[in-house]
Amino acid sequence: MNSKRDRDLSVSVTTFYMKFVGFWLASNYAEKRWRNIAISYTLFTILFSISNETRSLYFSWGNLNDSMFTICNVVTIALVIVKLMALLVYMEEVHDLISYAKKNFWHANYDSYEQSIVDNCKNTCTLFVCTFTFFAQGTTLTYAIDPFLENRGKNDTDRVLPFNMWLELPLSVTPYFEIMFTIQVALLFHVGVCYHCFDNLLCIINLHTSVQFRILQYRLANICNDNEKCKEASEKPRCTANNYMKLKNYIQQHQGLIEFCKRLECIFRSIVLGQVLLFSILICLDGYLVLMDSITRSRRIIFAFHISGCMCQLLMFTYSCDCLIRDSMNVAHAVYNSEWSLLPMDKYGKMLRRDLILVAMRSQTPCRLTANGFFVVSLETYTNILSTAVSYFTLLRNSTEDT
To answer: Are 41 and 189 in contact (CB under 8 A)?
Structure first.
């Protein structure tokens, strides 16, 4: 950012983590090279993690505590894989979206009222991003701290790692334990970054796009105010012509936002579907592991952080999509609330009325994100996912109690 006024903590945090996993913009050859290295390391981390957890699930099957713990890890990594693979396919389009947002959203010129809208959006983004990042990184930190709590008072031969490796090596003794612990923690934090950085980006882009619709509403609502200032009849045709030229610019802005939302939908629709399908399972497993009597206190803390992060992530995700729907539809209300009835019945006055009607008609179809076209994501999705998670939890609880 160029000045203190332009600084946005949510964008800065997201930029840092997106560079860390290799998905941000690169301006020169050296940055592109480091980006490729980061992407390669990210892919290695995710593939190694999912293979190890899948293998661990095979060996721990039959032990309720260990198998539930491992299933939760597998579902979390599967969610990361869905995000990673989808964005790898559309990497160039993601870079184009970020470049467009930097130029037209974050670094655009606004008047005082429009700047206040943007500042409120920045505060909301910062709240969501920092809260979700705190719980996501807190979860990875509790995973790393868990062995220290579990290994207190144990011999070197009984020490446990954050995750079981199931290798024919003496991993509980020095130096194997220290080496494997360092490797697991490094992989763990990288998976944690992949888990939250893509959702942070989607939230920021959604909320800033909805703010652009609010700014467009403000501009359309005040487009006819110049006619009230033109008191002489000879000046009104010139004012109407100027307003019509403004309207053309606003229509181009509206068309650009609609096209931007279509590109956003194309890139993130498979990610949205994956998240909606897996969120219910993940919340169900987290809740079950938190309430399980036989689980250790340290693991209970892990999944308390995990379920808190999931709830925050789900709210952030659905709220930003809901804002996009509401603000894109409210453009029609802003058109109607403008002083169109005071326009003179000359050439440009009639053209203004006609084009305002077209803008209002187009706004009746909202911009939105869907789960790969199956259904629209909104705040209602939040309640539906929670309801499904509770149903899964009740079924799981009853089945384990019966056995």
So the answer is: no
CB-side exposure of 7: number of CA atoms within 13 Å?
4
Alpha helices by DSSP H, listed for 339-378, are: 347-363
Please tell me the distance from the alpha carbon of residue 403 to that of residue 392, in angstroms, as a whole number.
17
Candidates 390, 338, 379; CA nearest to 359 is 338
Rounded Cα–Cα distance for residues 246 and 242 (Å): 6
Residue from 288, 307, 275 nearest 375 by CA: 275
Using CA of residue 21, residue 10, residue 83, residue 98, what is the dihedral sign? negative
Residue type, 396: L
Structure-derived torsion over alpha carbons of residues 26, 29, 30, 33, reported in degrees to the nearest 10: 80
Question: What residues contact 33, with CB distance under 8 A and at least 6 apart?
Answer: none
Predicted pLDDT at 342: 65
Q: Are residues 170 and 190 in contact, defined by beta-carbon separation less than 8 angstroms?
A: no
Has this prediction a pTM greater than 0.90? Answer: no
Q: What share of the chain is helix, strand, coil (3-state, %, to 5)?
A: 80, 0, 20
> Could you tell me the two tokens for 229?
């200032």
Q: How far is CA 209 from CA 49, 241, 368, in A?
A: 35, 29, 11
Cβ neighbours around 157 below 10 Å, total: 9
Could you state, in chain order, the average pLDDT of each consecutive group of 10 residues for the chain (403 residues)? 61 91 86 90 92 88 82 90 90 91 87 90 93 92 87 78 82 85 92 91 94 91 64 57 81 92 92 88 86 80 89 90 92 81 70 83 89 88 88 81 61
Beta bridge partners of 370: 376
The total of other beta-carbon atoms located within 10 Å of residue 29's CB is 8
Give me the pLDDT at residue 337, please. Answer: 79
Question: Burial of 228 by CB count in 10 Å (0-12 exposed, 13-18 middle, 19+ buried)?
Answer: exposed
Amino acid at 172: S
Distances in Å between the Cα of 33 and the Cα atoms of 27, 90, 190 are: 11, 19, 19
Q: 313: how many CB neighbours lie within 10 A of its CB?
A: 24
- pLDDT for position 4: 45
Q: Specify whether the CB–CB gap between 38 and 22 falls below 8 A.
A: yes
